[in-house]
């Protein structure tokens, strides 16, 4: 009578997804630079061979992590692109920090990544910059839709408020900190609309 061998936690499909999930947890709690590739492999769990087959370097893993956040809707972009929600509410949604259970409050993952990779020529920094510029373009489109004057300048003001609020919420550990920036954003929008 033969027995079917049971799969170990390191076997089977889904290695890439487990690696990205482990990296997301570790990068959020420790930062990218403080997280070792061996830690990621252990937390995934996958062999180091599997890890390096999917991601040759930690930079590759960091970029894939940021791309995964963007593509799965775990960033503020999902607020800005939400169908069926009025433009004004999408903009004001930038100031609501998502709270996952009792997890620590996190700031913007793209700002965090750019801070950890300060060389503007680095691939991680470049990707983070692209995402922040995309955010401005999305907000510009929304304020244009509202009929606001000088939409590009207004969009820059709004995303600066949103980024500042996210950073302060993380530093202070206060998920509700965005309410202050939201109040300022409402004033900016009202002024822009009244001058339209």
Termini gap: 81 Å
Mean of pLDDT = 89
Helical content, roughly?
A: 55-70%
User: Helix and strand string, N-terminal first?
Assistant: HHHHHHHHHH
* CA-atom Rg in angstroms: 20 Å
| Structural shape | elongated
Structural class: mainly alpha
Instruction: Please state the oligomeric state of the protein chains shown.
Output: single chain
Catalogue the unreliable spans: 1-11
Count the beta strands: 0
Describe the protein:
64% of the residues lie in helices and 0% in strands. The chain is built from 10 helices and no strands. Helix 4 runs parallel beside helix 8, helix 8 packs across helix 9 and helix 9 runs antiparallel to helix 10. The N terminus is likely disordered.
What characteristics describe this protein?
mainly alpha; 196 residues; 10 helices; elongated
Write the layout of secondary structure elements.
Blueprint: H1 15-30, H2 37-43, H3 48-54, H4 58-71, H5 77-80, H6 87-92, H7 109-116, H8 123-146, H9 151-172, H10 178-194
Helix pairs in contact: 1-2, 1-4, 4-8, 7-8, 8-9, 9-10
């Amino acid at each position: 009578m033969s027995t079917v061998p049971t799969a170990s936690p390191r076997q089977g499909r889904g290695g890439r997804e487990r690696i990205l999930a482990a990296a997301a947890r570790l990068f959020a709690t420790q930062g990218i630079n403080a997280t070792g590739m061996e830690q990621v492999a252990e937390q995934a769990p996958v062999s180091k061979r599997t890890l390096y087959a999917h991601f040759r370097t930690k930079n590759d893993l960091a970029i894939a992590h940021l791309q995964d956040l963007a593509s799965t809707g775990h960033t503020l972009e999902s607020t800005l692109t939400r169908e069926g929600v009025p433009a004004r509410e999408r903009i004001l949604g930038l100031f609501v920090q998502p709270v996952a259970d009792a997890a620590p409050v996190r700031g913007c993952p793209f700002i965090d990544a750019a801070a950890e990779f300060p060389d503007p020529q680095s691939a991680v920094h470049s990707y983070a910059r692209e995402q922040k510029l995309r955010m401005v373009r999305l907000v510009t489109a929304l304020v244009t839709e509202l009929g606001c004057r000088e939409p590009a300048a207004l969009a820059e003001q709004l995303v600066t408020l949103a980024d500042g609020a996210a950073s302060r919420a993380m530093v202070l550990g206060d998920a509700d900190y965005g309410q202050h920036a939201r109040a300022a954003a409402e004033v900016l929008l009202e002024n822009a609309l009244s001058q339209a």
